[in-house]
Amino acid sequence: MKLLVTGGAGYVGSVTSRLLLDAGHEVTVLDSLVTGFREAVAPDATFVEADIRDAAQVLTPGSGFDAVLHFAGLIAAGESMVKPELYWHDNVVKSLALLDAVRAAGVPRFIFSSTAAVYGNPVELPITESAVKAPTNTYGATKLTFDHALTSEAFAHNLAAVSLRYFNVAGAYISGEHEIGERHNPETHLIPIALQVAAGKREKLQLFGDDYPTVDGTCVRDYIHVHDLARAHLLALDAATAGEHRIYNLGNGNGFSNKQVAEVAREVTGAELPVEIAPRREGDPATLVASSERAREELGWVPEKNTLQAMIGDAWTFYRKHVA
Ligand SMILES: NC(=O)c1ccc[n+]([C@@H]2O[C@H](COP(=O)([O-])OP(=O)(O)OC[C@H]3O[C@@H](n4cnc5c(N)ncnc54)[C@H](O)[C@@H]3O)[C@@H](O)[C@H]2O)c1
Ligand SMILES: O=c1ccn([C@@H]2O[C@H](COP(=O)(O)OP(=O)(O)O[C@H]3O[C@H](CO)[C@H](O)[C@H](O)[C@H]3O)[C@@H](O)[C@H]2O)c(=O)[nH]1
């Protein structure tokens, strides 16, 4: 297929581009590099440095794209509580402009990076796709808004749309000649920050809150290896059906507290990893754990690297060689 990958200079988009290219697809990456890295773009992809709001320059009528995979966006839940306007613009206003371009160019399929953050504090665990959606942060609200836009688009204009609701992505793609992983600047995610501490780049790991209603008072998250996640996109491309908006949660169904993550990071790196309890971060739900039964049944998706040791181990391999 001829594919447009927005956000292909970012973490998940660059790993997925690699898998798409290796599967024989033709990939054009569109990324403004606002948070991504030019060197993360797959060398055998065509690269267009542009904002998604200008996607019509690439998605011209007759350009012949078979699908758009839309990873581009702003991703930090904490930041979205202090700069919400940035999130509404990037994740909704500009994404709607992208959708206009998709419609005008007659692109038949659209795969969207949605998130566990759409659910907010869950009423029942594990979280299924039909669970109540009540985001506790602006980031989740923007992603849910665009999910709704895709539902209307699919039904009104016959788009084959798929939203993949990732839980917490971790690890790196380590395979022969390719090592592709996570780089955010500034880094806000728990695992890469723990690795920065292990590498001596930060003094200590601050854990935001220890008074949540969880096993040890710290927040609980469901971590998913970026390689398993990327594979789900290829399956979603095959499953996408005209006129339908399919939605799949992608996680392992296992919750780890922030303290447990720190413990595994200690085990993997051999570092002491000092921890300090800090105030809660605004907008954090206490627990997010996925039910991915629907993805298993309908897509045939089976996560293979499902231990935290494997995820943090691959992230550490990437971090030491390419980031530290
Ligand atoms: N990392 C996670 O744990 C996680 C979890 C759930 C969902 N997601 C979603 O997955 C997607 C990818 O996440 P990631 O971790 O790879 O993020 P990332 O920050 O590494 O990559 C995002 C990319 O999008 C680009 N971008 C942002 N706004 C743009 C715009 N207006 N025009 C063009 N390019 C733009 C950035 O330059 C960057 O390369 C995001 O949509 C995110 O919301 C990520
Ligand atoms: O230095 C840190 C960084 C994070 N945390 C805590 O670690 C947990 C995980 O936080 P992350 O920032 O790593 O991830 P989030 O759960 O906030 O969000 C991530 O996963 C979500 C899906 O669950 C989103 O989609 C989002 O893009 C992605 O950033 C939270 O309790 C957070 O407060 C700390 O205690 N200290």
Automatic annotation (TrEMBL):
Q: Which cofactor does it need?
A: NAD(+)
Superkingdom as given in the UniProt entry: Bacteria
What is its EC class? Answer: isomerase
Query: In what residue span(s) does the NAD-dependent epimerase/dehydratase domain sit?
Result: 4-251
According to its UniProt record, which reaction does this protein catalyse?
UDP-alpha-D-glucose = UDP-alpha-D-galactose
Q: Where are the transmembrane segments?
A: none
InterPro entries per the record?
Epimerase_deHydtase, NAD(P)-bd_dom_sf, UDP_G4E
Give the pathway listed in the UniProt entry for this protein: Carbohydrate metabolism; galactose metabolism
GO MF annotation: an example? UDP-glucose 4-epimerase activity
Q: What is its EC number?
A: 5.1.3.2
The UniProt keywords, alphabetically, are: Carbohydrate metabolism, Isomerase, NAD
Q: Which Pfam families match?
A: Epimerase (PF01370)
The family annotation for this protein states: Belongs to the NAD(P)-dependent epimerase/dehydratase family.
Subunit notes for this chain? Homodimer.
This protein is called: UDP-glucose 4-epimerase
Native organism is Paractinoplanes pyxinae
